[in-house]
Amino acid sequence: MLTLVLLLSALLLDRLLGEPPRWHPLVGFGALVDAAERRFHRDDRRRGAWLVAMLVIPFVLLALLVSLPPWGWVAELVLLYLAIGWRSLGEHGKGIADALTQGHLDQARERVAFLVSRDTQTLDAQDISKATVESVLENGNDALFAPVFWFLVAGAPGVVAYRLVNTLDAMWGYRTDRYGRFGWAAARLDDVMNWIPARLTALAYALAGHTRVALDCWRRQGRVWKSPNAGPVMAAGAGALGIRLGGAAVYHGRLEARPDLGAGQAARPEDIRRALDLIRRGMGIWLACFMLLILIGHLLPITGVSE
């Protein structure tokens, strides 16, 4: 029951306060990662894996230490709140949707560049809508569902480990000459930690939208995407919304062929808000399931005694 209270409280804090405007621990961690890369970078998998361990393990142990009784619940609440980026994701998405609705295409391009790694200078309204919905759906897992999952599984150490690994993947997990080998460990560890949460997220999206279409898109399209976890999440999300995502996009000046995701019409500006609403309903499903599990856990001992 305490876990549920902490989870609901952290979600409420995120909705009320959003991310701290200054001194966010992940910003400091990002600066530490940059410094470690400049000092120790080498085109070597073992060097990258060693750095990942050195950057993550001490903070996980610290999270374990501060989460011990009697005041450990305070640390757990704060760490989960800091790991969640639900309100921030919504603000970014709504800002892009508003810019598109008002016809401010250049502003929309500038804003979407904060969410995606593709080239945005020449995107039209439809491409911006598609890129934003893709990012919203994928980051719904990374910034909300996966941190919640790891908190439920392993408490504060779990959520800290996930958020740091996810940050390392965002900074090093690229298939480029500089990061192809050096960032291999960060990318693979992020894949492992996201495998179960991503599929539970995809299931939540499916249940919160056009379920049959979403499950079919997940089955057919999710496995052909370049990311083993983003594919199921975005395919199920696109199917749940009844829109088409994916397709070719320009990255670092090169046109990359990408599979189609979802089914139906092309993404439009209004679909950005629909994607954010899908995340909200999906989290509602997660919370309802967790509460049901708690209720079953309380009823089973009573049933056992009466028998």
Automatic annotation (TrEMBL):
Keywords: Cell membrane, Cobalamin biosynthesis, Membrane, Transmembrane, Transmembrane helix. InterPro entries: Cobalamin_biosynth_CobD/CbiB (IPR004485). Pathway: Cofactor biosynthesis; adenosylcobalamin biosynthesis. One of its GO terms (molecular function) is ABC-type vitamin B12 transporter activity. The chain crosses the membrane at residues 48-66, 144-165, 283-302. One of its GO terms (biological process) is cobalamin biosynthetic process. It is a multi-pass membrane protein. Converts cobyric acid to cobinamide by the addition of aminopropanol on the F carboxylic group. Belongs to the CobD/CbiB family. This is Cobalamin biosynthesis protein CobD. It comes from Ectothiorhodospira magna.
